[in-house]
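FAQ: What does the model actually see?

It sees only this:
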Amino acid sequence: MRISRRLAGFLCAALALAACAPAATPTPQIIRETVEVPVEVTRIAEVPVERPADPGSLVVYSGRSESLVGPVISQFTEATGIQVDVRYGSTSEIAATLLEEGASSPADVFFAQDPGGLGAVADAGLFALLPEDILARVPAEYRSPDGLWVGISARARVVVYNTDALSPDDLPADIWDFTDSQWAGRLGWAPTNGSFHAMVTAMRVAWGDERTRAWLEGIQANNPVVFEGNAPIVEAVGAGEIEVGFVNHYYLYRFLKEQGEGFKARNYFLPGGGPGSLVMVAGAGRLANGPNAANAHRFLEFMLSTVAQQYFAGQTYEYPLVAGVNTPAGLPPLSDLNRLDIDMTALADLRGTTQLLGEVGVLP
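And it is asked to produce this:
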C-alpha cells in the first residue's frame, strides 16, 4: 500500500511516542434479554436482539483502554452473542499498526480515543463508508464529514484547580494567560499524552504554529511539573502539590467517586473558549477489508444505543452523543460550553504537532 507523506509522518510519530464473511446460519430467532447497565444508579434495559444460532465474531482494535471500554464490549457480546477479540493499545500505536497492516489487517473496527488516529486511518483509505442510519445518530460536528467514522462519546479539555489555593475568580478566561509569570511553579501538564497533543494540534489550527510555539515556550518558562498522564495531574492538584493542571474533564469524577466531595480539586471550563476549551470525540470506524462487516455495523449501533451511551455517561463520566441520554450529573451540557469550533478531521496532523513539541523541547 502506498502511504502519503502525511501518513508516513503519523506512523513515524506514533512509533517514536511508543518508544518514550461468516458461514450461513439457521433462521434467526428473536431473544429478549435483560441487560444490566452499570451506571451509578443501576438501570435495567430490555434490549431486543436478533441472534442467529451462530452470531459470528468481530475483531476490534481499540485505542481506548480495557478499563474504560471492556465492560461495554462485554455487554455487546452478552446482548448479541457475537464474540469480540479486542486488541488494546494507545490510539497512535493502533493507528500505526493499521497503516502497516493495510488491506491485510484482520481488524473489523478501529475504536479510537481521539480523532487524530481516526483521521490518519481514514486518509489511508482503510475505512468503509458507514450507513446513514448509523451516522445520523450523532450530530454532524462529531463525525467524519465523509461518513467514514462516527463519534461515540465526547471529552472536554478543562483546567483542574486546587480549591484551597484558588477559586474560579482567580483563573483566567483563556488558556493563553497561563503563560503569565504569576503562574510560575504552580502548573502541571502531561506533554506525552495523546489528548494534550490533540489540544496542541487544535492550537495550531486556531492560532497558527508561531503563536502555539509561543504558548508552549511561555508555559515552559513557568516551570510546569511534568506528569505521564491526566490522572496523576488531578491527584497532584487534589493533594496540593500543584495548583493547576491541563486535563480532560472526566478524570476528576473518578477521584470524587472514590474520595468524596472533600477531594480538593474541581474542574474549570474556560469561559473564553479557544483551544483550551476543545471538545474531542472518541469514535470508531469500520475497516473496509474486515471480514465481518455486518457485525461491525451491529457493534457501532450498540455503542450508539441508549444502553451504551448511559454506560459512558454513568461509568466513565464522558459526554453521550446520542439525543435523549442525559449528561452526567454535575457536568454542564455540551451546548452550554464555549467550545472551540473546529473540524475534528483537522486534528489528524500528529506529525506537525510532535515536531513542534520536539523543537521547543517539550518532547525529547
